[in-house]
Amino acid sequence: MKLIYYSVFVSAFLGLVFVINNFLTYIFDLPGLFGILAFLGFGYFDITGQDYSGVFLFFGIIQSISFIFAFCAPILILRQQKSERDAALLNSCSEIIVGFAFWSVMLIGVVDAAISFVRIEGLLPNIVGDDLALALGKPALRGAYIHIPLLIIGMIIALYRRGFDFIWLALLIVLGELLIVITRFIFSYEQAFMGDLVRFWYAGLFLFSSAYTLVHEGHVRVDVLYANFSEKSKAYTNIFGSIFLGIPLCWIVLIRGCWHETSPFNLALLNFEVTQQGFGMYVKYLMSGFLIIFALSMLFQFSSYIISHINSLVNKEENTVYG
Asked: Could you give the C-alpha distances from 133 to 104, 128, 288, in angstroms and in order?
């Protein structure tokens, strides 16, 4: 069990380090772990073919050390022998990731929809001037100067506000759908950004709340056998199910989506991919990022889930021995 305990911690931290370094590598052209290995003579890992300067190599070394941290940090945590706190730590990490995504999606949805509305109605030049109004019609500029600052604000809010606010996102989706119905059937008015906003929030609600639903046993189970298991058998089922099905699924999503610059998630995010509707919302590329948040938050939550069940099994064995 100790090996499983350590492995799930490493898996969670390694996922976080992998995602952070993925963006550092492809946004800032840093060498990353593979670039450093290629520099050291391991040509097999040379996936970029670039020559890096001394400063870039320095940052690449830091990136490489961060992967070592993912293997060493769990050792320090486990040495403290506070098993109940271990699951809470992983759960808190998942909570921060989801909170960051939730607030970012809410803020970006409101602001981007407002920009799209005034742009469609021809009011944007009167508000920001002709040059900036033209620039806001370009996905790269809107993403870099509108969405990214809002992402940073969402991250700051998530660090200071703990807890889940999915009920508010669900309410906004209902209000968005209600607005579409009222404007379409009463005022005969409908624009592409209105449907984009609802889909944007709807996708975020389901993908971000998956980790929360897992904690509260809210996912649908086909209880043909599981319902009749003993508590011990249920714990073993959840542990090995998470190890062999849950965690591999998360890693498949991350690796397939972020392994290379041309991987699906990276390609969409780095190019600020948008829909063909020029006057809709410019958030399609962010919806690719939703799957990264889903996989990362579920990776932490599956790890917390496994540790919680291991702790329950250990406590029951101790109670049996000393009871």
From this structure: 23, 6, 26
Which distant-in-sequence residues (6+ apart) come within 8 Å of 100 by Cβ? 151, 154, 155, 157, 158
Question: Is 266:22 a contact under the CB 8 Å cutoff?
Answer: yes
CB atoms inside a 10 Å sphere around CB 259: 15
Q: Answer yes or no: is pLDDT of 48 > 70.
A: no
CA dist 5 and 62 (Å) reads 27
My answer on whether 160 and 117 are in the same domain is: yes
Using the Cα atoms of residue 263, residue 265, residue 269 and residue 272 in order, give the sign of their dihedral.
Answer: positive
User: Do 269 and 140 lie in a common domain?
Assistant: yes
Whether residues 60 and 119 fall in one domain: no
Nearest to 7 by CA among 209, 239, 265, 236: 239
Q: Is residue 86 part of a domain?
A: no
Question: Using one digit for the tens of pLDDT, what is the confidence trace for 261-273?
Answer: 889 999 999 888 8
**Quick one: 52 and 108 in the same domain?**
no
Q: Which residues span the domain enclosing 29?
A: 1-81
248 Cα distance to chain centroid: 16
Question: In angstroms, rounded to a whole number, what is the distance separating the alpha carbons of residues 233 and 261?
Answer: 43
CA distance 147 to 154: 10
Q: Which amino acid is at 314?
A: V
pTM of the model as a whole: 0.89
Is 49 found in the same domain as 10? yes
